[in-house]
Amino acid sequence: MNRFGGLIALLVAVPCTAAFASQKNYEGTEAEALRCANTVALTAVVLAGSDRISDVEKEVMLGISFLMLESHVSGTWRQKKAALDVMRDRRDEEETLDDFEQIAQRCLRQFPIN
């Protein structure tokens, strides 16, 4: 391998290693808070996208999701965002809406935002 090939391999490997090192696994209560925050946020986006709630209501729900993450989930915002991405990819819209109907009230009690 020439020296440029080695440099390219190093430049590709370093960000991958840094990204892997910054990942955080969430369990227990924090994982539940992530699920709740994800469910509230995605429900807001889906409902607003189908004109079932206003943009103001969507912003309120997104704010609730943000505050749940801020108050009940440890780690950096990058780690929280990565965990939300994983959670989002595990559920489709219909499953997320079903989750919202089933767990939203419990989420608000279990993970208060004030």
What do these coordinates show?
The chain is an all-alpha fold. It contains five helices and no strands. The termini are far apart.
Could you give the topology of this structure?
Elements: H1 3-22, H2 28-49, H3 55-72, H4 77-90, H5 93-110
Helical amount? over 70%
- Straight-line N-to-C gap: 58 Å
How many strand units?
0
Radius of gyration from CA coordinates: 18 Å
- CA-based shape: globular
- What is the string of helix and strand elements? HHHHH
Main structural class:
mainly alpha
Largest sheet: none
Low-confidence stretches: 2-18
What is the number of helices?
Answer: 5
Kindly list the characteristics that best describe this protein.
114 residues, mainly alpha, 0% strand, globular
Give a brief outline of the structure:
This protein is mainly α and 114 residues long. It is built from 5 helices and no strands. Helices cover 81% and strands 0% of the residues.
